[in-house]
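ok so for the tutorial part 2 we go from a plain amino acid sequence to predicted structure tokens. step 1 is just haveing the sequence, like this:
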Amino acid sequence: MKGNDIMAFHPLAYRMRPQNLNEIVGQQHLVGPGKIIRRMVNAKLLSSMILYGPPGTGKTSIASAIAGSTKYAFRKLNAATDSKKALEQIVAEAKMSGTVILMLDEIHRLTKPKQDFLLPHLENGQIILIGATTENPYITINPAIRSRTQIFELKPLTAMDIRQALERALHDKKNGLGAFNVKLDDAAIKHLANATHGDLRSSLNALELAVKSTPANDDGIIHITLKIAEECVQHKALIHDKNGDAHYDVVSAFQKSIRGSDVDAALHYLARMADADDLPSVTRRLLVIAYEDVGLANPQTAARTVAAVTAAEKVGFPEARIPLAEAVIDLCLSPKSNSAISAIDKALDDLHQGNYGEIPNWLKDPHYQGAEKLGHGIGYKYPHDYPHDWVKQQYLPDKIKNRHYYIPKKNGRYEKALAEQYYRLEKFKGRPLEKDE
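step 2 — the prediction. this is what the tokens look like for a chain of 437 residues:
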């Protein structure tokens, strides 16, 4: 079987992989003129690297183009499924015939035995490793591998990038669809370029399916309409993958948008998580926000958030989006106060630094035989025996008896009232604090 016949069995996305850096779509911050990967190739000073980013953004394409531009042997393995023996065979090849570029997919799943075997060959330059992952390598990849590689982040491709690649595939007679007489409506190519949200692999394979599954008309033309394009997008690339690295970025942006009182941004990130059916992440984050960011400025909002979360969990998606949206809007537009989290974190910080003392004897538990002999509980003043159910008494250990953790804010009526009471009590205790402290 000839090479071209073998290639015909591969998907279009495979056949259209770049053979050099000039054919790469997007990622110009890495492969454009004067950029880091192009400089490495031009200077023939390749170093091992990790490429991370969403699916279909060109990790394998860049590895293939580097190999094509440098003429080094190119081999591809999967860290999760290929054995250590497969690695040994590639190292043996490198020893016999020279440097090999090893594309290692899912590198975040590389086991320690495979890693230990690979490391010395990275250091002596026999193997140039190009690891690929959708996970954040700073979180998921072993430091021993990270320290021997450069890490490059790939960005999602734009619709314009994908359209360019689709048009090239449509006219390429060797590896693409140039042998077919295709009329592709503008609305159809726009849909193919947009529907997969930056996943070029899915867009190319959808185009191939559309062309090869649509019969030619009486004039011998394969006419691809918008409706056909919609039918052939086999995979909708989620903007938010609840199991992927981008999950943490979306959740972070969601909380920061609510904290910053940007309703529209918060609803946008809610939509990403709702579209991925990621109800647990949404509900957990909303409860955290209600107490961390709104807090004492508006405690009623926390109660409403709990009710909204309960309703969302009972009805599930898609209806859950309604109470969740109400909670998001409510939290966004509420006054904010982080005084509670700041207070407890200050207390924890003191504790962790050893800045605490012995509990005063009058506060210790007196409810056991012999406690009185130890002085435990003696001298305790029961506040309910005094006017207004309050009496001046020291509760903090001597070492930190004048320490203040709670610093009130005045961004809502409720905390304003708490602040006034707090200042009043501290003054009565003889440990007043400034109102702007």
